[in-house]
Design the sequence.
């Protein structure tokens, strides 16, 4: 297990104990197992919505990480030729539900276990 | 390129049952695959302090600029859409609008038959003037920001609609025609 994994697990155990001091042993084990699975993942998840999902024919992919934000669209273009020009160019990107800027946050590493969202222009209402 | 696809015979299975909602402190935001309950939306925001309840119902149209729409469906990124909806009601309920007593937004997902309701916004205010204004502001914010996508099916294929071209995270300029992406694949994984 890498140092970052251990760090993640430690901080999660700490959070679990802080929020839920009266946790039953089995509940604690379940939460800890979930934490370990995430920390030890060797891929991150990419979720596709709307046009992105139609283009790839999928709801999600698992991609080996870590990977800097700036490399993701090129990686997806290799996987799905034409994806960048037809879809990705108008999409935003979320990492663990927070929007990231493709240029300003380009150096940011997407970690294994992260959830990345490909967000096309929205059309609710 | 594949032939233009037609809407799925069997709609994608709902990703969840009932309503996914975030509520508290006079605010309610929800997502559901079920028919929207207008009375419940209105009752949710009633307040003895209010002199007005404003209700907006968005319904699904049978055409886009004159072209016949046969089927309409909505898809979403549940946790992110709920987060964005919550942020909108929080910002509207901030000190900027002290007379806003309660507000509720609920959006329908999946296939919505033509003429049925896709969104219901209800809110109560001390007086009607600010009620109309806040309701309009709320709808504009929802249409601009919330991670929900509409697909319109025509006789010759489907299109993912965009409320505003490249509203978020645009890295290059996109023309409006490019922002409407033809549907070439029948399989649509709905979340």
Sequence:
């Amino acid at each position: 297990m890498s140092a970052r994994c251990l760090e993640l697990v430690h901080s999660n155990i700490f959070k679990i104990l802080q929020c839920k001091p009266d946790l039953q042993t089995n509940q604690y084990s379940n939460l800890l197992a979930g934490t370990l699975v995430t920390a030890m993942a060797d891929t991150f998840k990419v979720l596709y919505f709307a046009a992105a999902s139609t283009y790839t024919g999928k709801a999600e992919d698992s991609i080996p990480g870590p990977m800097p934000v700036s490399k993701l669209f090129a990686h997806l273009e290799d996987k799905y030729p034409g994806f960048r020009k037809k879809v990705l160019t108008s999409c935003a990107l979320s990492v663990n539900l927070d929007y990231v800027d493709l240029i300003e946050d380009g150096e940011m590493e997407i970690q294994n276990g992260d959830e990345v969202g490909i967000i096309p222009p929205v059309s609710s209402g | 390129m594949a032939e233009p696809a037609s809407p799925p015979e069997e709609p994608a299975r709902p990703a969840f049952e009932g309503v996914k909602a975030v509520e508290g402190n006079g605010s309610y935001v929800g997502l559901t695959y079920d028919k929207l309950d207008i009375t419940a939306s209105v009752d949710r925001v009633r307040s003895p302090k209010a002199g007005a309840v404003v209700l907006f119902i968005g319904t699904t149209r049978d055409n886009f600029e004159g072209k016949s729409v046969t089927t309409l469906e909505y898809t979403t990124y549940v946790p992110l859409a709920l987060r964005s909806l919550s942020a909108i009601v929080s910002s509207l309920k901030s000190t900027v609008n002290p007379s806003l007593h309660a507000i509720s937004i609920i959006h329908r997902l999946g296939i919505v038959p033509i003429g049925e309701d896709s969104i219901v916004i209800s809110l109560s205010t001390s007086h009607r003037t600010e009620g109309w204004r806040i309701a309009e502001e709320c709808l504009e914010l929802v249409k601009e920001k919330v991670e929900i996508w509409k697909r319109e099916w025509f006789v010759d294929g489907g299109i993912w609609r965009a409320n505003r071209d490249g509203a978020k995270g645009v890295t290059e300029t996109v023309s409006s025609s490019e922002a409407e992406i033809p549907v070439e694949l029948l399989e649509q994984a709905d979340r």
In short: The two ends of chain A are 46 Å apart (CA to CA). The longest strand of chain A covers residues 43-48. The interface with chain B takes residues 47-51, 53-55, 57-60, 86-87, 89-94, 97, 99, 101-103, 117, 119-125 of chain A (CB under 8 Å). DSSP finds five helices and seven strands in chain A.
